[in-house]
Design a protein that fits this description.
Elements: H1 2-67, H2 86-168
């Protein structure tokens, strides 16, 4: 009977050791899970804090812009963006800004082409103006010479008639 008791005691001690070891392993695992959960909660708190600050900044910028009577189209973020995660909002805003930059580049190139065309037209008009000015000057000179011709002719006629009178006398 003592032998049975010894065997049972050894079995119980071995079971107790196994249970203690299992308990220690479970405690270690639970401690690891608790630390991981605390880190995750800390990250979520930080992200919530950052999102709250970003939201407050957006609201304050919105209220400033609204006070300045700025059209809502000029706002950097749309109101619908406020319920989306910040990274998606920033990415979509970046895409909108890139698209706007491309549109502006296209518009700038078109305006540049228009400017070149206008400069060409101005140059042509200046050339035409110069030619017309030259023709006007020539016409004025011809008109002046033509207007002087009658007086020269009348002077010649006077001189000729004077001579005729002198010869007749």
């Amino acid at each position: 009977m003592q032998q049975e008791l010894c065997v049972k005691e050894q079995g119980l001690e071995s079971t107790l050791r196994e249970i203690e070891e299992s308990s220690k392993n479970s405690s270690t695992g639970l401690t690891r899970l608790l630390l991981a959960q605390q880190k995750t909660i800390s990250r979520y708190k930080d992200e919530a804090k950052n999102l709250t600050q970003a939201f407050q900044q957006k609201l304050s910028s919105l209220s400033c812009l609204l006070r300045q009577d700025t059209p809502l189209l000029l706002l950097m973020f749309r109101v619908s963006d406020l319920d989306r995660p910040l990274s998606i909002t920033l990415r979509s805003e970046l895409n909108r800004q890139k698209q706007r930059a491309q549109e502006l580049e296209i518009q700038m190139e078109a305006d540049h082409q228009k400017i070149l065309e206008y400069e060409r037209q101005v140059s042509e008009q200046q050339e035409k103006n110069t030619r017309l000015q030259r023709r006007l000057t020539q016409a004025e000179q011809r008109a002046a010479s033509v207007s002087q011709q009658p007086s020269v002719i009348s002077q010649r006629r006077k001189a000729a008639s004077m001579m005729d009178l002198e010869t007749l006398s």
